[in-house]
């Protein structure tokens, strides 16, 4: 794979669905559009083994997606894929709207206060009701930064920084 086209994990296969090779998919982002438009994807095992596979169908079933892969029309053929992550090439993602970002672009950015004090780097992100929470690591310290306008003043992907105005007590030990 070219370096400028990295693989991005977008979810995980959580189980089988029926006996005809269909698989249940859990999305990390809740957004299923990109996967539904993809023709092929990459399955990544826990050991890092990659397998390119062609999608036969991707249909919504409740709040989940049910996937079928070409050539895997039996539960016994599809069962080995349970537990694998599904990855897509970054270039398949649509351009985000203004002031919207993909998690994969945020993770790794340095977080600094509006006074220039380094807080650490974003190591993870999770959803918490009305906003995402950025997990910011600095050595053995961890800060949970809500991604709300009152706190996040600027996200600059190109410079690799997020500028925040911390709420009172947000950065206390």
Detailed description of the structure:
The mean pLDDT is 89. The longest helix is centred in the N-terminal third of the chain and has 5 residues, at 33-37. The chain folds into two domains: 7-92, RimM (Elongation Factor Tu (Ef-tu), domain 3, Beta Barrel); 103-164, SH3 type barrels, CATH 2.30.30. It has helices spanning 33-37, 75-78, 103-106, and strands at residues 7-17, 22-27, 40-44, 50-61, 64-69, 85-89, 110-113, 118-128, 131-138, 141-146, 152-156, 161-164. Strands 1-2-5-4-3-6 form a six-stranded antiparallel β-barrel. It has a six-stranded mixed beta sheet with strand order 10-9-8-7-12-11, with no helix packed on it. It has 173 residues and is mostly beta strands. The N and C termini lie far apart (42 Å).
Question: Distance N terminus to C terminus?
Answer: 42 Å
In sequence order, what are the helices and strands, one letter per element? EEHEEEHEHEEEEEE
Proportion of residues in extended strands: over 45%
**How many domains, in number, for the residues?**
2
Spans of at least 5 consecutive residues with low confidence: none
Our count of helices gives 3
Shape: elongated
Describe the strand arrangement of the main beta sheet, using strand numbers: 1-2-5-4-3-6
The level 1 CATH classification of the largest domain is Mainly Beta
Q: Which whole number gives the mean pLDDT?
A: 89
Main β-sheet: number of strands, strand sense, barrel status?
6 strands, antiparallel, barrel
Quaternary class: single chain
Identify the CATH architecture of the largest domain.
Answer: Beta Barrel
CATH superfamily of the largest domain: RimM
Structural class: mainly beta
